[in-house]
Design goal:
single chain, 232 residues, mainly alpha, 8 helices, globular
Length: 232
C-alpha cells in the first residue's frame, strides 16, 4: 500500500524496503517482549512475565486436545513464537504510520513453508520415511492388487493435499490481514481524525483470531505427522 503514509516510507518509497523494515520491527518487538518477560523471573509472576506465562499456558491448552500435553509442550517454542510474531505483525498495521508485514504474501508464505518443512521433518524423524509416507493412504483390509491400485491413485492426491496446506496457511493469513489494512485505510480516509473505535476493536480481534488460527493449524499438522501410531 504505497499510497498510504508510513514512517519508513519517509526514508525510501521502495515497498520492498518498507516491508523488510516492518518485518524487522515486528521481530524486534517480539524479541523485546520475550526479553522483558524473562528479565526478572519471579515465583509469583507480575507484569510482562504474568502476561507471557498466561499466553504460554493458553497455547499449551490449545494444543492439549489436538496433540496431547506432552507434545504440546514439546512444540510450544515453535507454535508460541510464530503466534506472537504473527500477532505483533497483524496489530502493527492497525497503528497509523505502520504496515502489517503479514499483509505481504512473501512473509506469510515463508511462515507457511517453515511449518510445512518442520512438520514433515518431525513426521519422518519419528516414524521413518516409509512409515510416514505410508500413513498418507489409509485403505484398511482389501485385496492386495486393489490396495496397490488404490495406493497409486490416492497417494498423489494426498501429496497434493499436503502441498495445498502451504497455500492455505499463507493465503488465509495474507488475505485477511490485507483486507483489514484496506478496510482501515478507507476508514482513515473518510474520518482521518475522528476514526471510530469500533473498527479498531474489530481489527484487533481479527489480528488475534488470525494468529490463533495459524497456531492451531500448526498443531493440527504436527499431530497428523507425529501421531501416526494413534491413527490420526
Amino acid at each position: 500500500m504505497q499510497e498510504v503514509f508510513t514512517f519508513f516510507g519517509v526514508l525510501s518509497d521502495s515497498h520492498g524496503f518498507i516491508f523488510v523494515m516492518h518485518t524487522l520491527l515486528a521481530a524486534f518487538i517480539t524479541i523485546v517482549i520475550a526479553r522483558f518477560a524473562t528479565l526478572s523471573l519471579q515465583l509469583v509472576p507480575r507484569g510482562t512475565q504474568n502476561v507471557m506465562e498466561s499466553y504460554l499456558l493458553g497455547v499449551i491448552d490449545m494444543g492439549r486436545d489436538v496433540i496431547g500435553e506432552e507434545k504440546a509442550r514439546k512444540y510450544l517454542p515453535l507454535v508460541a513464537t510464530i503466534g506472537l510474531f504473527v500477532f505483533v505483525s497483524n496489530v502493527m498495521g492497525i497503528i497509523p504510520g505502520f504496515e502489517s508485514p503479514t499483509a505481504n504474501i512473501n512473509l506469510t508464505l515463508a511462515l507457511a513453508l517453515i511449518v510445512f518443512i518442520y512438520y514433515n521433518f518431525e513426521g519422518i524423524r519419528k516414524n521413518g520415511v516409509i512409515k510416514y509416507f505410508a500413513s498418507f493412504v489409509h485403505l484398511g483390509e482389501m485385496n492386495p492388487i486393489a490396495k496397490f491400485v488404490m495406493t497409486l491413485f490416492m497417494f498423489p492426491i494426498e501429496v497434493v493435499s499436503h502441498l495445498s496446506r502451504i497455500i492455505s496457511l499463507s493465503f488465509r493469513l495474507f488475505g485477511n490481514i490485507k483486507g483489514d489494512d484496506l478496510f482501515l485505510a478507507v476508514i482513515l480516509m473518510l474520518v482521518p481524525f475522528l476514526a471510530p473505535l469500533a473498527p479498531f476493536a474489530l481489527l484487533t480481534f481479527s489480528a488475534l483470531l488470525q494468529a490463533f488460527i495459524f497456531m492451531i493449524l500448526t498443531y493440527v499438522y504436527l499431530a497428523g505427522a507425529v501421531l501416526v501410531d494413534e491413527g490420526h
